Amino acid sequence: MTTAYHHWPMLRCRALGHRVRFVADGAQLRWYCERGCGVLGTRDYASVEDARRYARALDRDRRADLGRRAPPFGLLPLRLAHRLRARRQ
Fold first, then answer.
1. To which H or E segment does residue 66 belong?
2. Series of mean pLDDT values for 10-residue runs along the chain (89 residues)
3. Cβ contacts of residue 58 below 8 Å, gap of 6+?
4. What local confidence, expressed as pLDDT, does residue 2 receive?
5. What is the chain's Cα-based Rg?
6. What's the rounded Cα separation, in Å, for the pair 54 and 58?
7. What is the pLDDT of residue 28?
8. Do residues 77 and 15 lie in contact, with contact meaning Cβ atoms separated by under 8 Å?
9. Helix %, strand %, coil % for the chain, to 5?
10. pTM
11. Dihedral of CA 77/13/64/86: which sign?
12. How far apart are the first and last CA of the chain?
């Protein structure tokens, strides 16, 4: 693996933000970055249903509201365009 390829997911996440996915595994909630940058974690819940409920609530595609919830620097032009459009309406 080349060095540039190894750092590519990390650079994408810094510029565009993480794409975190949530999965319930028994009573444990697991999350990871879909881009493969290495961000991951777990949390144990009291019941399987609690873990499933949180996974369903948190695991959604946030690209639909991209202009409003954009990373601070990477998508600055998109954020500014969204604010200008909102002022006109």
1. none
2. 50 76 94 84 95 90 58 70 84
3. 20, 22, 31
4. 39
5. 17
6. 6
7. 96
8. no
9. 45, 20, 35
10. 0.56
11. negative
12. 50
